[in-house]
From TrEMBL:
<dbReference type="GO" id="GO:0005886">
    <property type="term" value="C:plasma membrane"/>
</dbReference>
<dbReference type="Pfam" id="PF06835">
    <property type="entry name" value="LptC"/>
</dbReference>
<protein>
    <submittedName>
        <fullName>LPS export ABC transporter periplasmic protein LptC</fullName>
    </submittedName>
</protein>
<dbReference type="InterPro" id="IPR026265">
    <property type="entry name" value="LptC"/>
</dbReference>
<feature type="signal peptide">
    <location>
        <begin position="1"/>
        <end position="17"/>
    </location>
</feature>
<dbReference type="InterPro" id="IPR010664">
    <property type="entry name" value="LipoPS_assembly_LptC-rel"/>
</dbReference>
<keyword id="KW-0732">Signal</keyword>
<dbReference type="GO" id="GO:0015221">
    <property type="term" value="F:lipopolysaccharide transmembrane transporter activity"/>
</dbReference>
Length: 185
């Protein structure tokens, strides 16, 4: 093979390779997106006022300045990143009030995870504060493994780690506790 044919063959191969290289788009970003699942809320609501009713009676009112709904992820949940104010109604029309800096509920579990500066007050003046508190809506039961302080205006206060109780504070189970009890007169 002579030099001209070899030169033409090399030039043709180089031209073909350059054309092939530049004709293909860079799909690197698209390929990265194939395995990337976006974690964005499917719904965003500002100034939320939810009322839960059962048999025509209001059972709870939840107020929050922001709600994010992640209903399309593998384990759907609703998040309240700016906290909540929750009012729970008992059968005898007594109310309990719960507030927290953050809350999240996973669909299907009926459990609300309240975090940050959690405070609960009853109409009778009982008061509970902790950093994290779970509320089982189905069983109307609260529980935490964190440090807490529970105050009863008549019986005094109790501090400790770990507590679970009914929403009306009629049944309370303490774990590790330190108490100060007012003596009966």
């Amino acid at each position: 093979m002579n030099k001209v044919n070899r030169y033409s063959l090399k030039l043709s191969v180089i031209a073909f390779a350059v054309t092939l290289f530049f004709s293909c788009e860079s799909n690197f970003k698209q390929i990265q997106q194939i395995n990337f699942s976006e974690f964005m809320p499917t719904g965003i609501a500002d100034t939320v006022n939810l009322k839960y009713t059962d048999s025509g009676k209001v059972k709870a009112i939840l107020i929050s300045s922001k709600m994010l709904d992640y209903g399309t992820v593998k384990y759907p949940f609703t998040e309240f990143p700016e906290g909540i104010d929750l009012t729970l109604y008992e059968a005898n029309n007594k109310k309990s009030f719960v507030s927290s800096d953050y809350a999240i509920t996973f669909k299907g579990t009926e459990i609300i995870d309240l975090r940050g500066n959690v405070k609960m007050t009853t109409q009778d003046g009982q008061f509970m504060e902790t950093e994290q508190l779970f509320y089982d809506q189905k069983n109307e039961w609260f529980f935490t493994e964190k440090k807490f302080k529970f105050t009863d205006p008549i019986k005094g206060f109790t501090t400790g780690e770990g507590i679970d109780f009914s929403k009306d504070f009629k049944r309370i189970n303490f774990q590790k506790v330190y108490s100060e009890i007012n003596e009966a007169e």
